[in-house]
Write a structure and sequence with these properties.
Helix content: 10-25%
Number of helices: 4
Number of strands: 8
Radius of gyration: 17 Å
Structural class: alpha+beta
Distance between the termini: 52 Å
Strand content: 15-25%
Order of helices and strands: HEEEEEEHHEEH
Oligomer: single chain
Length: 184
């Protein structure tokens, strides 16, 4: 019974995602057609709360060369426009946009990432990271100074980001805001 319920939920999600993506009109490859994501790593504080962790460790995959991250940049802020676009990507991929890339749409509906070889992945203990991010600021230097830091890499790296369709009110607010995928 439980297996059937999981299958139904998974099927519903797949149908909803395919309906959303079916309305996407524009596909752009990065870095060939656009500069890629405006951030350095899959890591962000509130409201995105993109922190990958298990029982004791946090994994921080870098989509751009970590040596290029400005020392004073707050990694919890996620986007760094336009500075991040000047850093070498460690991934390639494509993005699907409803109407077109920024500034037409503020962000893609879907993005697929594939590693370009050894994608840097940094690991730190959650017990060490949690108090460090409690003030809302975490720099690359803060990460480098952590005693538990383990620097590794992924020979094979694949990631997908899918955003649910926005409500009319959300779209209105997004259109007023600066696009996180636009190299201004």
């Amino acid at each position: 019974m439980r297996r059937k319920a999981i299958l139904i939920v998974a099927s519903s999600f797949a149908i909803a995602l395919s309906v959303s993506l079916a309305s996407a009109a524009v596909r752009t490859a990065f870095p060939a057609q656009n500069p890629g994501p405006p951030y350095y790593a899959f890591f962000a504080g509130a409201p995105f709360a993109e922190i990958f962790r298990d029982d004791g460790w946090v994994a921080i995959p870098f989509v751009r060369d970590p040596s290029c991250v400005p020392l004073g940049f707050n990694l919890l802020a996620s986007a760094d426009i336009p500075a991040a676009f000047g850093c070498e990507l460690t991934v390639e991929g494509f993005a699907l946009w409803k109407n077109g890339p920024a500034p037409t749409d503020p962000a893609p509906m879907f993005a697929k990432y594939s590693g370009l070889g050894r994608v840097p992945v940094w690991f730190v203990r959650w017990t060490e990271l949690q108090p460090a991010i409690s003030g809302g600021v975490l720099t690359i230097g803060d990460l480098q100074a952590m005693h538990s830091l383990l620097v590794g890499s992924a020979d094979i790296f694949e990631a997908v980001e899918a955003r649910p369709p926005a409500s009319p009110r959300t779209r209105e607010r997004q259109n007023r805001d600066r696009s996180p995928w636009h190299p201004n």
